[in-house]
Design a protein that fits this description.
- The chain is of the alpha/beta class and 328 residues long.
- Helices cover 37% and strands 20% of the residues.
- The protein has two domains: 2-184, Rossmann fold (3-Layer(aba) Sandwich), CATH 3.40.50.970; 197-323, Rossmann fold.
- It has 13 helices and 14 strands.
- Helix 1 (6-20) packs parallel to helix 7 (151-163) and helix 10 packs across helix 11.
- The longest helix has 16 residues, at 213-228.
Length: 328
């Protein structure tokens, strides 16, 4: 074990996977000579050379299109989209090519592409840097969507993603790059895709989240316990596709109450999918309607307004109190 930040765990994993498999290629904007905007790819160029670590033009469509072609030729591409909001410039490739290569080729081609992209609030970025687009990616059948909430999970999930034969969108929390720090196995470490993590147990209500909002829910659970005498569990979904429905159902059956927390705009966000799943699979266990806490249905705001947009522990606590019948 070694204590690593989340971005250090990502870098550590890329080094290990490139060492293990000579087919793994890393490319994207500023990933080679600069080692990435956040240094996630630092040292890869020096160790593995310019044929495997490549700076690309500023064109997200070209980055994803190149990954699809390389995958069809037997490589294992790990491209980086510098910020997830920039992926709008590549959705014609993500949804139209990357997600459906296996389907389109009738199974003749695997598509082992892992697209890394940071997202999320809390760092006062300019426009198109912090947008949470996970629900739009889930709407591209064929993609797996993975969102780590700890450094150890970043390594385990990224390793599993790179070794997966299907395309994976691996979304990393911007705020957590250096704030999330924990023990990470230095040896091989895999976390299976599609397996949620019970971060905290609780009997009164379960807080369901992913990515940076998991830590927000942990803080909210502490407030609920210390100030309101409520026992709140926290369930980290880890992956949205595949979705661990069994873990969601088990958590709701245990508590009878749930709050789903996401950074994305609330209308038609993935939180709504979780609520629908609960209603379909665990309706008769519910003691109260499921609550959602999310961003607002407005364009992502400028930095000075970010704290009013991104859910915080206070908003999660308020929702949990309403669900538990202790607030108006």
């Amino acid at each position: 074990m070694a204590v690593m930040t989340l971005v250090e765990a990502v870098n550590h994993t890329l080094h290990q996977e490139m060492e293990r498999d000579g087919r793994v290629l890393v490319f994207g904007q500023d990933v080679a000579r600069n080692g990435g905007v956040f240094r996630a790819t630092d040292g890869l160029l020096d160790r593995y050379g310019p044929r495997r670590v490549v700076d690309t033009p500023l064109s997200e469509g070209v980055i994803i299109g190149t990954a699809v072609g390389l995958a069809a030729e037997g490589f294992v591409p790990v491209p980086e989209i510098q910020f997830l909001g920039f992926s709008w410039q590549a959705f014609h490739q993500i949804g139209g090519q990357l997600a459906r290569l296996r389907y389109r080729s009738d199974g003749r081609f695997d598509c082992p592409v892992t697209v890394r992209a940071p997202f999320g609030g809390g760092v006062r970025t300019p426009e198109l840097h912090s947008e949470a687009l996970e629900a739009q990616l889930v709407q591209c059948p064929g993609l797996k969507v993975v969102l780590p909430a700890s450094a150890a999970d970043a390594k385990g999930l990224l390793t599993s993603a790179i070794r997966d034969p299907d395309p994976v969108m691996f979304l990393e929390p911007l705020k957590g790059y250096r704030l999330m720090k924990d023990d990470v196995p230095e040896v091989e470490h895999l976390v299976p895709l599609g397996k949620a993590n019970q971060v905290r147990t609780g009997d009164d209500v379960v807080l369901i989240a992913w990515s940076a909002q998991v830590e927000v829910c942990r803080k909210a659970a502490g407030v609920l316990a210390d100030q309101h005498g409520l026992s709140a569990g926290v369930l980290d979904l880890r992956t949205l596709v595949p979705l661990d429905i069994e873990a969601i159902v088990a958590a709701v059956e245990h508590t009878g109450r749930a709050v789903v927390v996401s950074e994305a705009p609330q209308s038609a966000g993935f939180a709504a999918e979780v609520v629908a799943t609960i209603c379909e699979e665990a309706f008769y266990s519910l003691e109260a309607p499921v609550a959602r806490v999310g961003g607002y249905d407005v364009p992502y705001p400028v930095g000075m307004l970010e704290e009013y947009y991104v859910p915080d522990a206070a908003r999660v606590v308020d929702a949990a109190l309403r669900v538990c019948g202790e607030a108006g």
